Amino acid sequence: MAIFLTKDSKVIVQGMTGATGMKHTKLMLGDGTNIVGGVNPRKAGTSVDFDGTEVPVFGSVKEAMEKTGADVSVLFVPPAFAKAAVVEAIDAEIPLAVVITEGIAVHDSAAFWAYAGAKGNKTRIIGPNCPGLITPGQSNAGIIPGDITKPGRIGLVSKSGTLTYQMMYELRDIGFSSAVGIGGDPVIGTTHIDALKAFEADPDTDLIVMIGEIGGDAEERAADFIKANVTKPVVGYVAGFTAPEGKTMGHAGAIVSGSSGTAQAKKEALEAAGVKVGKTPSETARLAREILVG
Fold first, then answer.
1. Can you tell me the distance from the alpha carbon of 28 to that of 79, in angstroms, rounded to the nearest whole number?
2. Do domains 11-126 and 148-293 have the same CATH topology?
3. Is residue 251 annotated as part of the catalytic site, yes or no?
4. Cα separations (Å) of 151 from 146, 201, 205?
5. Which residue in 24, 107, 192, 251 is the catalytic one?
6. Which residue has the higher pLDDT, 294 or 54?
């Protein structure tokens, strides 16, 4: 089992023929991802050779889905064109769109988020400005390094890309069922709560690690959800304990105002919900290890 992404997922890459798309398509193929096509209207009908694997290029997401049965799209599309690319994926009703692109204007993200809702939320959006998601040993949709961990029974949901990688590496001997990088922008598709709900329902996930950041109230809302709905042990980490008040982090969403949104406030909310919270990523990994291994 896994959440959102399995070995049977058929993945297309919007922006596959660009430099970043080419680089990461090759890496995803190396991780065993079933990539069935790319999308570029200007190069429709051609194909790209990735070390002997020919990947066809289609003119649209809809055409790629009709020809291949694709059910996941990973987007490596420049910020100026990302909104149109996500809207195209939503119009095609692809079940999962993973938006890697950084620097998308917030009003563009808000627009495609609202558009997905108006169309009945038939497309789950992960991101934008995220590393994507990986089910180790099965499939990798995004830019998470595929060789830093193994399959296991920990579920990870994280706002931060680099902290995702660190946590996976620290717990590599135990392994992960799935890891989902949701992104740190103010407007994102899939939230901590969405991932927590999926991990709670996944029989192959025994423990959940949740990584947040200062700013906003997403972690506080996740704490309320955990208290009411999650029976599995949850371990948390909030980046930004040492940030001065009012400090803006690298992610546009991480802005602290008063006590709301501070690392300490989030830590207290999570602990009140029964979540063990580490002060550093390594301490968080140790807490997870103690629960699972003893």
1. 22
2. yes
3. yes
4. 11, 18, 11
5. 251
6. 54
Confidence grade of residue 125 (pLDDT, cut at 50, 70, 90): very high
d(CA 179, CA 162): 12
Amino acid at 252: A
CA 113 to chain CA mean position, Å:
15
The residues spanned by each domain of the chain are 11-126, 148-293
Residue 165 CA, chain-centre distance (Å), reads 12
Tell me: pLDDT of 256 over 80: no
What mean pLDDT is reported for the chain?
93
Spatial strand order in the sheet of 176-181: 139-142, 132-135, 176-181, 151-158, 207-213, 234-239, 276-278
Nearest in space to 25 (alpha carbons), one of 108, 185, 132, 181: 132
We find that the CATH architecture of domain 148-293 is 3-Layer(aba) Sandwich (3.40)
- Strand 139-142, strand 176-181: pairing: unpaired
Q: How far apart are CA 280 and CA 105, in angstroms?
A: 31
Tokens of 82: 């990302």
* Position 252 confidence tier, pLDDT thresholds 50, 70, 90: very low
pTM of the shown model: 0.94
Give the pairing of strands 139-142 and 151-158.
unpaired
CATH 1.20.1050.10 given to domain 11-126: no
pLDDT of residue 16: 98
Among 95-99, 136-140, 192-196, 211-215, the minimum mean pLDDT is found in: 211-215
- Annotation: binding site for CoA: 17-20, 43, 100-102
Which residue ranges are tagged as binding site?
Answer: 17-20, 43, 100-102, 165
Q: Which residues are annotated as a binding site for substrate?
A: 165
C-beta of residue 119 within 8 angstroms of C-beta of residue 140: no
